[in-house]
Automatic annotation (TrEMBL):
Organism of this sequence: Lactobacillus amylovorus
EC identifiers of the protein: 2.6.1.-
Source species taxonomy: Bacteria, Bacillati, Bacillota, Bacilli, Lactobacillales
Identification of the protein by name: Aminotransferase
Pfam families for this protein: Aminotran_1_2 (PF00155)
Keyword Transferase among UniProt keywords: yes
Amino acid sequence: MPNLSSDLKSIINTNLSNLSASKIRAFDQKVSGIPGIIKLTIGEPDLATPDHIKKAAIRDINDDDSHYAPQAGKPQLLKAISCYLDRSIGVHYDPKDEICVTVGATGALNDVFMTLLNPGDKIIVPTPVWALYFQLIKMTGATPIQLDTKKDGFILTPEHLRHVLNGRGKGAKAIILTDPSNPTGRVYAKETLQQLAEVIKEYKIYSITDEIYAELVYGNAEHHSLSEYIPDRNILISGLSKAYAMTGWRLGYIAAPKQIMQSIQKVNAFLVTSVTDNVQMAAVEALNNGQSDPAEARAIYEKRLQFMQTGLEKLGFEMATPQGAFYIFAKIPEKYGIDDEQFAFELAQKAKVGVTPGRYFGKGGEGYVRLSYASSTEQLHESLKRITDFVNDL
């Protein structure tokens, strides 16, 4: 087994030395070895990809569709995405030059950050949030300006955004907003988005919206997009991983005005050349003929949310009402103060339930844990029983 030459060990991209590996994944791996553990740590749907989508991929393979696809995406898929956005948020994106297909929403984030950000730039990141944002931003040499939203129920208010843009975020180039939210499950009301759009216009910055959970909203909540109000400056990111249980297929996309999309498509082509043929055709099938699939998944997740939320609140856990995605962000018992990491580790060891410490999601996450209810109903029932026993023993 070869060892790297000692005179080469320090010759790497210096930005990497300032980046840490995913603490969410590291904690998940740490507790995975505990016998009998039920993991509510990762946002991984337990549902299977619908059969008609799988069959479309198999059909495409059998048709020998095995050559390079167009770099921005197959025309059929670009059209399907355009039609989906038309009917879901009422905004038309030209499939020819305003959409780009990517390797998952993570690939889309990379494309957008590499397109917009230069070393020294600032970008506003409301927290708690999916922590990979921080590392992807830092890889470009830019600085994420964390904006703690806990005091407002994990919703960014226009007043808070304006305050930050006049202070430590002055001169920021963009803001990224996750809606529905990972990890809090919060959904932005239409009126709040309209007011945020006015601030974004006033300060002449880009907005980036990660809408990967757009199809998973519950109760009276409705999903809206900043693209409805500022389509000329918003860059929309989404994909099929969550609503269609296609996390391993790695299919994402970006929609934006063509003037910036030209650069985004260039970056995407440099990074991946093109997205896998049969995956794209599976996505065409999902978007064109699978409109009922997210609704079926949504009904399952909503029942699980109601069960877990009711049970946790009876135990004294507090939370801002989750309305979307498939996470609960719960405040830990008073005994632990804000040591969510210790609480999560003891819960894993003693109760054999894995949850994710809230501090891993940035400022405002301390003292909370994230639980994913994308696990099976049977596992959720057992995990709540174990959490109940653990809390009662404290």
